Amino acid sequence: MQFAHINGVTLHYQLISAPAGKPVLVFANSLGTDFRIWRDVIVRLAGEFAIVTYDMRGHGLSGLGTPPYTIDDHVDDLAGLLDYLSVKDAVICGLSVGGLVAQGLYAKRPELVQALILCDTAHRIGTAEFWNARIDAVKRDGIASIADAILQRWFTPAFHRERANDLTGYRNMLIRQPADGYGGTCAALRDADFTEAAKRIAVPAICVVGDQDGSTPPDLVLELARLIPRARYEVIRDAGHIPCVEQPEALVSVIRAFVDEFKLGGKS
Question: In angstroms, rounded to a whole number, what is the distance separating the alpha carbons of residues 136 and 139?
């Protein structure tokens, strides 16, 4: 395991090297998960890319910091980690809140970003009322009280029927996240709005969404793609909110095609 002290918080990360000239691919996790969600994508791409992934503050094995958070807290953590690893010109792949962090990283530190892969995310997700209700529920009754409803959005009915053991494992991942870290990131989601910033994205970008995503539905992700100049848009069939778990081969195909189309290469 690898750890770094960034912005007063210990971040758990993983760095997988690759031959010189390969692009650096950075993965940012979603709310209520840690970097293990990317495993089935990473094992298919290792060697083709240098890979960085990490647990956001308040998630996984990373430190809690001082919640509630702003989206800038998460952006600064990722920027600090990339500085620590001497990474620039990376392809940033963020899921859900990770996609907001990716957008924020480009807005704040564009020299770190060569391209954006924005998975199951948007320029703005949910409303203040929605996030405040979720924060209150977690404070009052814990993450377990809302876990079943969240899993319905994360995964398709077929996943629920056919992959019961996996479903149990991902439920465990969710409910074992620190409640303060989860609620703190809900506050960051509540207040994040990249509607105007998305219009200024000038690097190659693709917006990807599962066709059955219950958290950031295809129409919402398409709105983001339309805001970003010349952004690509791709729907992954038979996937909910976390295609990297449910359809990793399809997501890997999207990533490879995107990198090949824009001839992205290592510059770090």
Answer: 5
